[in-house]
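Example record

The entry below shows one chain as it appears in the dataset: sequence first, then structure tokens.
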Amino acid sequence: MARFEIKDDFYLDDQPFKILSGAIHYFRIHPEDWYHSLYNLKALGFNTVETYIPWNRHEPRKGQFDFEGMLDIERFLQIAQDLGLYAIVRPSPYICAEWEFGGLPAWLLEEPMRVRSSDPAYLAAVAGYYEQLLPRLAPRQLQHGGNILMIQVENEYGSYGEDKAYLRAVKDLLVEGGIDCPLFTSDGPWRATLRAGTLIEDHVLVTGNFGSKAAYNFSQMQEFFAEHGKKWPLMCMEFWDGWFNRWKEPIIKRDPKELAQAVKEVLELGSINLYMFHGGTNFGFMNGCSARGTMDLPQVTSYDYDALLDEAGNPTAKYEAVREMLAQSFPEYPQLTPLRKDSMEQRGIPLSQKVSLFATLDRLSQPVSSLYPLSMEKLGQSYGYLLYRTRAEWDATEERLRLIDGRDRAQVFVDGQHLASQYQTEIGEDIFVSGQPRESQQLDILIENMGRVNYGHKLLSDTQKKGLRTGVCKDLHFLLDWQHYSLEDIDPDQIDFEGQWQAQQPAFYAYDFELVECKDSYLDLSGFGKGVAFVNGFHIGRFWNVGPTLSLYIPHGLLKKGSNRIVIFETEGEYQTQLNLVKKPIFKDIGGENL
């Protein structure tokens, strides 16, 4: 069997080996496109693929595991191996990755534990997950006939904690689970994070994450190695070739030629993993969230990342710039002709059906009753929307309502009429309602969990618990007797389109169309407000007209020859009677102009 070792350099079967790796997250790409992305990595001249493994997708509910379809990590690794690619796998419980809650499952929030620590309750949860995951990875290590070179213990832990007992416990779980390939950690390259987040004393390889200034950053790592008597090879485990994007902020770009020179600087000194090589898409409710002061800033559905492959997996100008640099400066790495996919356009798809949420609510969710409103997590819900409903008797011609302690975005309706929308820090402000004394009216509050933070101390904050966490006040007192309708796993086939539609209410809109050929496309949502979309029942993600993105990517693997259906759940009362599929993504200048 082949052998990979870490000494003064990386060695593959006793020969020095430079790792040229690119990040491709299988869980962000439709399985029909895995080969396309991995082939393009190989075609660039690279020899290794790197991927995180998201705990929250593989164990969405405690004790319930999923490794099928888009989550079939074994199939992904096999395709890579068949192409002659090695693999770096990062199954650390926490992944960051601009992914919901950094990959931690939301059900941990209702468990009495401290995440990312040596808390026995947390380690027991990790152990239960690894019991299912590691038997799928262990046989795929290089020395056992697979292609995995290295496995990560924890991710950027030095930017979070310094609980070495926790790091050693995770390492021990990996070893006990049959992982005997080299282990590593990845952190910022300066001493504080390296001291706090590594297991250098335990001979676990230290790698760094940065996006420029390779000589300087590697020199800091070498100083840390020397402190501990190590002569290790240098590797940037995340060389940031682009960046992620948030709602209401401009798209972030990096110059291709500048990037190519920066990559060259890394390769002259050590090994590299490009983060990202292919970013893909945050399908469903899986976008992460940045923490800034009292605000949590959710990231967009597209994880294009301005990477070497675009969201659809096609080579970009960056790909060509890096390809040219490698051909000139590192000709020993053979290159191939990359693959490119076509996209398609279909305009004027007519609206087939529409219905208000309130008219089909009972078909989508079975209500749960309680005296006071419950948070999402207490109801066993992790993501999406939650509708709270009660009846209130009016005591004056104008009443004051307040939502006490809620996240993230709330829409308030009285007898079906929209009163107010409040977002994060606005929640708790006065909402005034007109009515008649002694009349009883229905109060509905639709709350959207827009994503949990994926980085930093706020992983421990109460703001990561979603929905109404305390209650709703009318005048000065809390209202009672609530019904809760979970809208986490919306099944478009269960929507009753025979119900009524009413303007300015959250509603479902269905569009039916025929295809003779299936190609990638983008769903134009520039005429809609805010919500989510489903293609043939698959949840392709969130949209919001604040930009910077005004479209959602549709992989060809979600489409069918013959009849197709797109269902849009829109919450602001803004929709179109015709729908367009277009060949390229649509963006919005934050100044208001479409690009």
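Notes for this example: Residues 55 and 103 are 5 Å apart (CA to CA). Residues 4-329 form a domain with the TIM Barrel fold (CATH 3.20.20.80).
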